[in-house]
Design a protein that fits this description.
The chain is an alpha+beta fold. The chain has helices spanning 47-51, 84-93; strands at 9-11, 31-32, 35-36, 56-64, 76-79, 99-100, 102-104, 107-109, 111-119.
Length: 130
């Protein structure tokens, strides 16, 4: 069913944590970004855009607490794809995103970070990643 086509999303925690939002405070120790743990992509490619060959990338700013839970009130678009439907699809996928929490010195910490969401067809070049 075309309406259930999952986006070929490349989701990887990336970017640098926002130290002001880091509850660990000191910035000392080995830091590990939150890791997306979903078995299936949590973001769906809008069917009409997929059928029309539209690609794009959105960068979300997420706040994940020390349990790996996304705070939905803190979610925002850090960089738009320039296509409202792709931006909306990325935001709609956030409640389905599951993370292992960030760690500092082996201890879980809350952190704000950038999460790219790339909407890309298999036959498109991989240069659409942010």
């Amino acid at each position: 069913m075309r309406s259930l086509i999952l986006c070929t999303c490349l989701l990887a925690a990336c970017g640098q944590p926002d130290e002001a939002a880091d509850d660990a405070g000191t910035g000392a120790g080995d830091f590990q970004q939150p890791v997306l743990t979903n078995a299936n992509p949590p973001v769906r490619f809008p069917p009409e855009l997929f059928e029309n060959g539209v690609d794009g990338a959105v960068v979300l700013r997420l706040y994940v607490d020390e349990t790996g839970t996304v705070n939905p009130d803190s979610t925002m678009i850090a960089q738009s794809s320039g296509i409202a439907e792709l931006d909306s699809a990325a935001l709609l996928g956030v409640p389905r995103m599951r993370f292992a929490p960030a760690t500092r010195g082996g201890e879980p910490v809350a952190v704000m970070f950038l999460q790219p969401v790339t909407f890309q067809h298999d036959e498109s070049p991989s240069s659409a990643q942010p």
